[in-house]
Design brief:
Distance between the termini: 35 Å
Shape: globular
Radius of gyration: 32 Å
Number of strands: 30
Helix content: under 10%
Length: 621
């Protein structure tokens, strides 16, 4: 059960000639309560006798009393009570000024402060066993007991300044300055200054362009530069050495004693500060033909400088390194929109299309110079989520070709599981991986000296949407399409390829598509029930990379509103009948049968993909 309460208070006072004061306070409280109990469900054999095992997830156990909420098959307490509280406070005090001089000089300014505070408290308790008597309560549970809890808080404080000026709504300038402070940083690094500036020019207001305004009735050029702070991923008191408390068996006759230790072995950072997000943007807005045709275009460059990142250190460090300002990410992108809206007598219609793309480049991150086979989250000099895969040259035609391959590449690191003389030795129909660097080894770790090749990234590119609709004499319709023109995926998990895992269902898409002596030109290598050989044949090979491009009809609504001369006869203002459908159609380049919006996963732990149709009636009294 969750209960949220909120109070907002706002006051505006006009002081004198365009000067006003605005104060605001907001308080939000969220209470979460949960009672969870587990009833053991017996299983039976074919003769009706109780079996040894209970139904999965009904076995009562409390394996981790010190971490009660770590629920899983082997840790499933009979009764659990949980209580969480979240409080949020917001305060702002702003002094505003707004005046117009000589009817064309519009000036607006703001100066003020705002503050935010978050406070959280958690508590949980559990007991291991409980008889099913039809009454369920913590007091009726027995056995091992566990409990836990915690509380914390963080806050931010900002000084803000904004100045806007425009001349006759033709030339526009905005300047913003702010000094932000955050409790998540150590003393001396809590506050940092950020600025931004933007300018706009409505060029169709110029006299020399008046002759073209019958076609281009509105045009605006926009430029902006700004930077802001980011504290994502930091804990409330990460800059302090945390002390943990627990129990340890100690003494001549070992018994549990209270013990203390250092959280994360005392590894902290006192020097880190705000990550600076810097963005530059240029854009243009155009309206044609009395604004029936509208279009916009934006191009931006964003840099995350001093990016808060986790640096990988050798295990001898003795703990997890704290996030530090050790990264630089560059992202470039653009977005284009175009729309048409018109009316022909009683028929009105519209269509809007948008498309955009972004490209990332990790310019600097300590410890991110190497990569492995598959998708790599962070590699210097490459986009985020980059694919480094094996290049392949078809499949072995016969045993002689397999023998020549082994003769050349017996020193390969990555052939250990399928090496010569093993139970998983390669055979005709298996995949031929290429030795790209010519060292007579098929290597998959390291850097450019390996045999892996960069083959793109897993980020979506050319994301687009289309909305069309219209109405005519009570009939209305609306359709929304969405899609992605380019997104590479490498299928993972149990059903990624045949026999990746033996004890699960297999993907039927591969049936009839694999190599056999009678089908040597098949799309995929031969079937094998050896998981190691199947991994060699399929996993992280270039031909398994798919472009998950698609277009899908996300929503379709068709309705009809009865004429009012009919509805008013029955004392009703409006009656509308409609059909609504979701995900009714799609086209995709995915070739292994999965839904294109599902991503790379092949383990569908939730509901299967569904299309929905519904019919409805709206009545307005």
């Amino acid at each position: 059960m969750s209960l949220i309460s909120r109070i907002d208070v706002k006051a505006i006072v006009d002081i004198w000639k365009g000067i006003s004061f605005e104060g605001m306070a907001s308080f939000q409280n969220e209470e979460y309560r949960r009672d969870r109990y587990v009833r053991e469900v017996q299983t039976y054999d074919w003769f009706g006798n109780p079996a040894l095992n209970l139904v999965k997830n009904t076995q009562q156990s409390l394996l981790y009393p010190e971490d009660v909420l770590n629920l899983k098959d082997i840790h499933n307490p009979a009764y659990l009570m949980q209580a969480n509280n979240r409080q949020y406070q917001y305060y702002s005090a702003l002094l505003r000024y707004k005046r117009t001089f000589a009817e064309v000089h519009n000036l607006e300014g703001m100066l003020g402060i705002n503050a935010e505070k978050w406070v959280w408290k958690d508590m949980v308790t559990a007991r291991e066993k409980m008889e099913d008597s039809g009454v369920y309560d913590l007091n009726l549970a027995t056995g091992k007991q566990g409990n836990g809890g915690g509380k914390g808080q963080n806050g931010s404080y900002s000084y803000i300044m904004r100045l806007n000026y425009n001349y006759a709504e033709k030339y526009l300038i905005e300047l913003i300055g702010r000094r932000d402070g955050n409790s998540k940083f150590a003393k001396g690094h809590k506050f940092k200054n950020f600025v931004s500036a933007s300018a706009g020019w409505v060029f169709t207001s110029e006299e020399f362009l008046k002759p073209v305004t019958s076609v281009v009735n509105f045009g605006k050029l926009r430029l902006s530069y700004g930077n802001s702070g980011n504290d994502a991923g930091l804990g409330d008191f990460d800059y302090l050495t945390a002390i943990t408390q627990g129990t340890t068996a100690f003494g001549y006759s070992p018994a549990k004693q209270v013990s203390t230790g250092l959280g994360n072995n005392g590894l902290i950072s006192l020097e880190r500060t705000w990550e600076r997000v810097e963005q530059k943007n240029i854009g243009i807005d155009l309206h044609f033909l009395d604004s029936r045709l509208t279009t916009t275009f934006d191009y931006f460059i964003k840099d995350n400088i001093g990016m808060l990142s986790e640096v990988a250190f050798p295990g001898v460090l003795g703990g997890k390194a704290p996030k530090t300002n050790s990264g630089h990410l560059n992202v470039k992108g653009w977005e284009f929109t175009i729309g048409w809206r018109d009316q022909i007598k009683s028929f009105s219609y519209y269509a809007n299309f948008n498309i955009g793309d972004t490209k990332s480049m990790l310019k600097e991150l300590e410890g991110a110079d190497s990569y492995g086979a598959g998708v790599n989250k962070s590699v210097n000099g490459y986009p985020l989520n980059s694919f480094f895969l094996y290049r392949t040259d078809g499949y072995f035609k016969d045993q002689a070709e397999v023998d020549r391959f082994y003769a050349l590449y017996t020193g390969s690191n990555s052939m250990g599981a399928v090496g010569k003389g093993t139970d998983n030795e390669l055979r005709p129909g298996d995949t031929k991986r290429l030795d790209l660097n010519g060292d007579y080894k098929i290597t998959d770790v390291g850097n450019e000296n390996s045999d892996l090749q960069f083959m793109g990234d897993a980020n979506p590119h050319f994301v687009y949407g289309l909305t069309v609709g219209g109405s005519w004499k009570g009939i209305d319709f609306n359709a929304m399409f969405q899609g992605v023109a380019k997104q590479y995926i490498m299928r993972n998990d149990w059903m990624a390829y045949p026999f990746r895992t033996l004890y699960t269902n297999q993907n039927p898409t591969f049936l009839g598509q694999t190599w056999t002596e009678d089908n040597p030109n098949a799309k995929y290598p031969r079937m094998t029930n050896s998981t190691q050989r199947a991994a060699w044949n399929y996993q992280n090979n270039d031909f398994m990379l798919q472009n998950s491009r698609y277009i899908r009809l996300k929503t379709l609504v068709v309705g009809y509103t009865l004429p009012q001369v009919w509805t008013r006869k029955v004392k009703l203002e409006k009656i509308r009948v409609y059909f609504s459908g979701n995900d009714l159609w799609e086209a995709t380049s995915i070739r292994d049968g999965f839904d294109p919006e599902m991503g790379a996963a092949s383990n569908t732990s939730g509901y299967p993909f569904a299309r929905t149709w519904s019919f409805g009636l709206n009545v307005t009294l």
